[in-house]
Amino acid sequence: MYKDHKNLLVSFINTVLFKCVLLVVDFLTSFQLMVQKFARKTQSTFSNHITDGTTHVIMKTDWFVLVCSADKELVCERTLKYFLGIAGRKWVVSYQYHKNLLVSFINTVLFKCVLLVVDFLTSFQLMVQKFARKTQSTFSNHITDGTTHVIMKTDKELVCERTLKYFLGIAGRKWVVSYQWIIQSLKEGRILEEVLLFIYLFYLESSVKLFVYVLFQENFEVKGDVINGRNHQGPKRARQSLTEKIFKDFEICCYGPFTDMTTGHLEWIVELCGASVVKQLHLFTHKVNSTAVVVVQPDAWMEGTSYEAIQRKNNVAVVTREWVLDSVACFECQELDAYLVS
After folding, report:
1. What is an example of a Pfam family matching this protein (predicted)?
2. Residue 310 in contact with residue 281, Cβ under 8 Å?
């Protein structure tokens, strides 16, 4: 099965990426035999001469770095084809530019990076564990900083129930995907996740540096939930947000008790979304341009609790927990007014 995963990705690389490659080699006649073999297998065209149709100029370099790093360099001699390649805006790449490197990268990086958390169905976990073994991934029932995917039970339209792991997955900017992702991946013999293909791109300034571009597939990402709407795209919005923190301008005190999650869980969620967590009501700092909020769940409290007194004494807005949950689910901070506790 693991070999099938690799072969399907290589097949995709062969049929999509390399059919357009027109190769020119700048050195080593003996090495040209390998390039010619590479060209035949990838349906590319090999030539010793640069033309307008040339896409890649192959250079001999000192050494090659597999994992992208701005500190590592590929250095070559300056030759006629080197200058013509740059002047013609071709890809000027190392002789190590070969599909085996893609396979190696797939082997060592792609299939070991998926850390799965399943939110439901103990019986279904057997299938996830099988998937994890086949792909050399790690399976866990608990979300950590290293978790990459949270697996949810969804309907056919990728809509799920709101659960603690759902909120933690969005707040932590994880892939929140349907269990159909697991089923379809096992059925097709490959991981249907964000990485379809790694393309090695080389850019010339004073030297050659390596970058990796990733193409994304989102066919199994959860689109919405049964409370906030079936297509609000909160998980995707969170995952694609590089710097946005929806609670970055808030000091939040989670004033329990709460049902279905602990106070610590709720604090974790708001902290992941950029809030400054306040443990006790008297610890608010009331910083400039910061909003002080106390989050409560009235139906979990005993009768007689005076939220008005909390608000007046601490100069804070007192809102229901739904403000946090709705904001996180949609990954968009909701207006406080609609959630104020009277």
Report:
1. BRCT
2. yes
**Residue 203 belongs to a domain:** no
**Judgement on whether residues 8 and 83 belong to the same structural domain of the protein:** yes
- Residue 100, pLDDT above cutoff 60: no
Give me Rg for the CA atoms of the chain: 26
Strand partners, 291: 250
| Full 3-state SS string of 12-75 | HHHHHHHHHCEEEECCCHHHHHHHHHHHHHCCCEEECCCCCCCCEEEECECCCCCCCCCCCCEC
Integer angstrom CA distances of residue 173 from 22, 54, 168, 197: 40, 41, 8, 22
- Per residue in 264-287, pLDDT (tens digit) is 999 999 999 999 999 999 999 999
Does the reported pTM lie above 0.90?
A: no
- The neighbour count for residue 127, using CB atoms within 10 Å, is 16
Domain housing 17: 2-101
Answer yes or no: is pLDDT of 112 > 50: no
The answer on 323 and 267 residing in a single domain is yes
